Amino acid sequence: MGGRGTARRWGVVTAGAVVVAVSLTGCGGGGDVAPGAKATEEPRAGGGSEKPARRAYDPPVRFEGNAVDLTGSGQPSTSSGEALRPAVTLVDGVAYVDDEGGINAIDTRTGDSRWYAETKYEPERGGFGTERVAPLVSDDGRTVYAAWWRQVPGEGTMPDRSVIEVLAVDTATGKRTWSAEIPPDPSSTGLAAIAIGADGNLAPQVVGVDAGTAIVTSADTTYALDPATGAVRWKKGDYRALNLAEGVVAGGEETGYAKGRLLGVDAETGKRRWTVADARQPAHAAPKLLSANLGDRSVVVDAVTGQTRVSFDSRDWRCLDDARSLVACSKHGYRASDRGIVVFDATTFRHTWVLPDHSGRSVPKVTGFWHGALYGEVGERPVVLDGTTGKDRETEPNAAPIEIDRYGGVEGTRFIPAAG
Questions:
Q1: CA 104 to CA 256: how far, in whole Å?
Q2: What is the predicted pLDDT for the residue at 41?
Q3: What is the per-residue pLDDT for 24?
Q4: Whole-number Å distance between alpha carbons of 102 and 122
Q5: What is the CB neighbour count within 10 angstroms for residue 200?
Q6: Is 262 exposed, middle or buried (0-12, 13-18, 19+ CB in 10 A)?
Q7: CA-wise closest residue to 200 among 220, 223, 221
Q8: For residue 256, how far is the Cα from the chain centroid?
Q9: How far is residue 406's CA from residue 41's CA, in Å, rounded to a whole number?
Q10: Looking at residue 31, what DSSP letter applies?
Q11: Can you list the residues of the chain whose pLDDT is less than 50?
């Protein structure tokens, strides 16, 4: 999950449904296991342990059982839109929660905390709380990263000061591997800034980390850190990074009132590598892809080269990758004509399916995508679609999770175990 999510043209038209036009460029277990789901069991603990093995599904398509409350993951009541997404990342049986005071690693089997890594400085508690972003877990699963805005009280003649505190924590032990304190630019307090990104969340976050650079955003400023020293190598105002891939930082830049562009810069130096002009509402789409509105359409852009890979004939499409090989882009407006799903291969950019089609099927609101299973809702009814074919895979999954692993999924601020 190091960064965890076009003109061959096709279109579909159904009565009262969305018109989807997409252009492609570039590369051209047990008896209760649901069809296509692979069930496995954890190895039993040694030493004569009587603890039963934990059932795993790849991917899970049904959810039931005793839910685990992910305390502290909820956003404040003043949040709106996509900023309401809980600050939790689910990886292999552990929910990593940014609960304002640090990172809490919750065992989703028991609900117990495996460890808690506190920040150096205390958060300002009270009121409605603060918006936070889900922690970033490295691709190898060994490190989890998070960042917070902090107000540090002065001492003696030293005045109060603001910092962005960054933590990198070993996922096995909960011990800090490195940390940093960034003196924020004035706009980075989030008090007056207007969020460049599509999710509207101004909270600090760690976007990506490679061998020599950690990319952190806060409000509308991006910082590149040296993880070995915590020193700021470069910073860029009015720029929100969304991806770090192959030494390139990609994101959105504010260029004037209601004006913007996509911008890729060198991770080491901050020098420009590519631009896409007149792009607004940038969003992370996949580890090497980002999306944005470009005039009256949406595009999906290669985060390394800036090349347009997918193009839609309408605005406000948002994308998720399945942590394997597929990307699902969707929009879900109030009207049926504002709803659609397009799934394509993340390498070849060839589409695999699209909704609406000519079958009259409803278009679900997409909530999550993992290992070939697309999770969503039709009205208030959860449903799971096959990510490769688009066919209904499970019509009674009992949940529409936003985060998924082989043991279950996160819906709201609860982890619900997988049952098939």
A1: 39
A2: 61
A3: 57
A4: 9
A5: 16
A6: buried
A7: 220
A8: 27
A9: 10
A10: T
A11: 1-19, 26-35, 44-48, 191
Cα–Cα distances (Å) from 84 to 57, 79, 201, in that order, read 28, 6, 9
**CA nearest 183: which of 166, 205, 201?**
166
Dihedral angle of Cα 143, 149, 151, 155, to the nearest 10 degrees? 40
Residue 193 pLDDT: 60
Could you identify the residue written with the tokens 């915590």?
230
Tokens matching residue 78: 């003043």
SS3 408: strand
Q: What are phi and psi of 188, to 5 degrees?
A: -80, 0
Among 286, 238, 284, 242, which residue's Cα sits nearest to residue 264?
A: 242
Alpha-carbon distances of 57 from 92, 275, 398, rounded to whole Å:
11, 41, 16
State the Cα–Cα distance between residues 60 and 312, nearest whole angstrom. 30
What is the spatial distance between Cα 358 and Cα 12, in angstroms, rounded to a whole number?
A: 7
Q: What angle do CA 54, 57, 58 make, to 5 degrees?
A: 140
CB 385 within 8 A of CB 392: yes
Q: How far apart (Å, rounded) are the C-alpha atoms in residues 183 and 162? A: 6
Cα dist from 55 to 42, 151, 171, whole Å: 7, 44, 22
d(CA 246, CA 244): 7
Asked whether 41 and 54 are in contact (CB, 8 A), the reply is yes
Residue 40 is predicted with a pLDDT of 66
Identify which of 102, 95, 35 has the alpha carbon closest to the alpha carbon of residue 70: 95
